[in-house]
Amino acid sequence: MIYSFKGHIPVVHKSSFVHPLAAVTGNVIIGENCYIGPGAAIRGDWGEIILEDGVNVQENCTVHMFPGKSITLKESAHVGHGAVIHGANLGKNCLIGMNSVVMDGAEIGDECIVGAMSFVKAETLFKSRQLIVGNPAKTIKEVSDEMIAWKTAGTKLYQQLPMDCYETLKEVEPLREIPKNRPIQEDFYKTLQEIKRS
């Protein structure tokens, strides 16, 4: 669902995928190879929202801001299921954990990882490569090379997902029984575990 608002029409690169059950409104620019999951709401009604290349905003996330603000989710930022980004800027290749809230004026540095269910207070600034957790969120240690390699591999799966959706996703009627030739699921998790161990 893509909506214009006060003359602003969202710009979505042709390589990016916005799920039909997501809502993108107004002054929003979405770069290359981005994935926007079902139930996500990206509301550029009161200000500008820029998603640089390779960003993913997963299911049931909200991206919004106070009036007159502009925010950027930089290249390869990864916003986990149910997270809220309200008027905050996200650095390159950072990860926002599931159901976290990042408030107005906060700045998450490049390659930071925000733990699931963390609350980042307004105007809080985090430098690059910090592991950020809690309520209120604070740095507990630096992000290691191994941690960022694992994060980057997961994000690459999401950067491939738009193409996979364009090629294979379609609305269907459910089967009423399990077919004998049911396809075997690819083991993406095994791949991530191998990266984590290496």
Automatic annotation (TrEMBL):
Pfam families, A to Z: Hexapep (PF00132)
UniProt KW keywords: Transferase
Domain of life: Bacteria
Gene3D superfamilies: Hexapeptide repeat proteins
Gene Ontology terms, MF aspect: transferase activity
Keyword Transferase: yes
Record flagged with keyword Transferase: yes
SUPFAM superfamilies documented for this protein: Trimeric LpxA-like enzymes
PANTHER family from the UniProt entry: DYNACTIN SUBUNIT P25, GAMMA CARBONIC ANHYDRASE-LIKE 1, MITOCHONDRIAL-RELATED
The protein, known as: Transferase hexapeptide repeat family protein
Organism: Patiriisocius hiemis
